[in-house]
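Quick note —
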Amino acid sequence: MPIKTFIASLLACLALPASALDYEIDPSHTYASFEIDHLGFSTQRGLFQRTSGSVRFDPEAREGSIDIRIDAASLNTGFELRDDVLRGDDWFKVRDFPDILFRGQRFVFEQDKPVAVEGMLTLLGEMRPMRLEITRFKCGLNLASRKRGCGADALGSLRRSAFGLSNGLPFIGDEVRLRIQVEAYQP
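Predicted structure written out below.
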């Protein structure tokens, strides 16, 4: 290849905008948990133990998207009898609605750092807007796995009654605080 052609090709590649990077969610380092008021006496907590999904992130264009699938049947509050009730037909109806989905279509940036992601949460077949505030964010090389990845801690809140989960109101709180810790790596 002549040197002029090589230089022209190199300059053309440098002039192209950087494309978004695709990441797969690492289910062993991604957790969705929740907190809810119980009778005014305490805050009850639980988590979902199985997640999957993908992230697309373009820091230069300051945009991205995230799809997180939460396996509703993997609910764990630390008390098996309660978990069986919550998985049942009066609460999460996991046979009919096995997935809880968060699809974030818009990252909100302050300077060069994402501080929130806005999207839609689907729960029990109902889809509602949701904003997750990002409290920690980092992209880089994971020295243990030697893979490039991104991670974040995010939190938001929802009214469970908006999704048809009205059992126990007003004794069991309507506001649910959702926390998602996610790590995702390039395939």
